[in-house]
Amino acid sequence: MKIDLPENVCDIHVHVGDFFSNIEVTFTLEKFMGVVHKYKIESALVFSGDVNPEKETERIVRAMRNNRKIYAMIRANPENYGHSRFLKSFEELLRNNDHVIGLKVNSSTEKHRITDSIYKDVLQILNDHRGVLMLHCGRWVKMSGWHFGIEVAKKYPKIKVILAHMGGTHPDLSFPAIEASKQLSNVYMDTSQTRQLVVIQRGIERLGGERIFWGSDMPWGDYLQNLIGISQMGLSETVLNMILRENFHNLMLKNS
Predict the structure, then answer these.
(1) Count of domains for the chain
(2) Which of 3, 95, 123, 254 has minimal Cβ neighbours within 10 Å of its Cβ?
(3) Is 218 helix (H, G, I), strand (E, B) or coil?
(4) Residue 52 belongs to a domain
(5) Domain annotation covers residue 4
(6) Domain range holding 169?
């Protein structure tokens, strides 16, 4: 059976670069642009891998100047969050570049909870500029649990907090994350690597389609596998368009 997949999709969750892993993984910006061309991706939010995040971020920002399909989030080595040079550069990028929208943090690899003091200054800058925080939410709950993102959203109400992987990729994590997010209008979720479609359905029912973004999590996630699931859920064209395109564009416009 042939499945007609949506085109001109906007991907909120793409990593490029090298990664800390016991298997060798490299996903270059050039490889990603090949995927963009192959599947006619309309726009994507891109951030660096774990290895040399500052260097890879510079490459992404340079590429972004010549390719308006790309939007960027900044990543940094944890020890740099407290340095004035990094903070000044981060604030200037948020102020002067409409395709740099915020900060990506993976507490599982950075080994610091997002509520730790090392993030205080960068989160305050993000709040001042009404920026976006993309927060990895995973099974290591003591380090990267969704509840830390909820704490940030309450403390910094001008930050738009995206809980990646619907709060943790599994119903045991995602369902309580969704419930905790209902009353916080600055909390959003992305669908990346969420294979249990009941989780996405619950998110739509509780939060509304306008607070859900579609993401592939490339290279850890497969573009087609992530897209096939949501495209076969029987969602209305209105809701599907919100998740695959409209919410992405609205987020970028609010941060321009």
Answers:
(1) 1
(2) 3
(3) strand
(4) yes
(5) no
(6) 10-254
Tokens of 232: 């076969």
CB 135 within 8 A of CB 161: yes
Residue-wise pLDDT tens digits, 30-56? 999 999 999 999 999 999 988 889 999
For residue range 133-186, list pLDDT tens digits in order. Answer: 999 999 999 999 999 999 999 999 999 999 999 999 889 999 999 999 999 999
In a domain, 105, yes or no: yes
Q: Are 66 and 34 in contact (CB under 8 A)?
A: no
Residues 6+ apart with CB under 8 A from 198: 171
- Both tokens assigned to 134: 């993309």
For residue 5, being part of any structural domain is answered with no
Please, where are the H alpha helices in the chain? 29-39, 53-66, 84-96, 107-110, 120-128, 141-144, 146-155, 171-181, 197-207, 223-231, 237-241, 247-254
Residues 216 and 192 sit within 8 Å (Cβ to Cβ): yes
Q: What is the identity of the amino acid at 146?
A: W
Q: What CATH number is attached to the domain comprising 66?
A: 3.20.20.140
